[in-house]
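Exercise 7.
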Amino acid sequence: MTTAPSPSGTDSCDLAVVGAGAAGLFAAISAGRTARAAGAPLRIVALDGARTLGAKILVAGGGRCNVTHHRVDETAYAGSSRNAIRNVLRRFTVDDTVRFFRERGVELKREPTGKLFPTTDRARTILDALLAAARDAGVEIRHPWRVESIARADHGFTITSITGDQLTARRIILATGGRSLPRTGSDGHGYTLARALGHSLTPRIFPALVPLTLPEGHFLCSLSGITIEATLDLRSGTGKKLVAFTNSTLLTHFGLSGPAVLDISRYYLDAAAHARQTGAPPPRLLINFLPSHTTESLDAALQNLRSRSAARLLSDPPYNLPDRLARALCEHAGIDPSAPGGGHTLTRERRRALATAATALELPITGDRGFAHAEVTAGGVPLAEVHLDTMESRITPGLHLCGEILDVDGRIGGFNFQWAWASGFTAGTGAARALAAASDAAPRP
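Solution. The predicted structure, written as tokens, is:
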């Protein structure tokens, strides 16, 4: 199935899929299956510039690959309109995903978080299943075969590689990914290809599911390694609540990471960019280390310390903060962590400062860790520019788009893979049916 780069010259196929990651492989598989079911086998060639196929699949989920989530709907996504996202997601559901992998001999298990992983706990299991399915569907994969340009031609498209090789195709599926994790091959070149074929891009393309940074020397950075369930609360500069996530949060030497931080990062970065652009007050990001408690309830408890220290109160039930974090919050509020009853330092002002630090600490975010550490890209080609039932371009007939190149990004936990499967399935079946219909309509000799 996998072939070496073709010799210099021009070759032809019915369908070329540019990008053999999750969405591209699934698009190619879906196209091949659809064509065979219609009795009209197609020559399908998937092109990828990477020397190692599926690198992004192999690193997903800590090397275990969270294939999807047990419950997926449009509310887990941002970017294009949720109605448009829903229309694509319903064409290939979570049940369809589970069924596809089961048919390939891969069983999935649901973890308490709702994530679905292969029972082998190995991402390689998923990649091998996809490559085998592609082979069985008659897909040829060429790599490393990096596409330099795509041009309209008579009866289709001409694709040129960086080495000058050419491939003509009647239809194309663009599945190049975005800019996240560029070391895996998704360096943003797909956006150049899309624009050359007439598409626009959203005004901002930026990292999503990305760790956030704090100023050097911020007291939380000294607590690197602590993981805690926390609520991240994003508010506009005028105080309006925008979005909140409660999940595991990791304190690091550079700032913050973990699921709650990754989920809220795209919303914070988008709001911050919008504020800079419009001159509005910057957004505020608050963290509550005690999601089940409020500033007021903690303040009331601090008024009844008696012989306990403030740090002991925070580290004992029902709060159960890690001792290092409890002491650091006390010191941040100007309170002696070990003094019984807070000692002479526990004034009303400092008591309120501690209650606020534990439940509504404002985070002075300085930025993010960039595309090199982002799990997905926010922004891209708007869904308004494709037909949602086939993912075919409204601008360039014969061109289909799927996956991360589109303006859709999901939460952590398998949602972005489900988008890859659903949009890839829709693009692949749409392209195959169009090719079969064109063959049927062609005049007989």
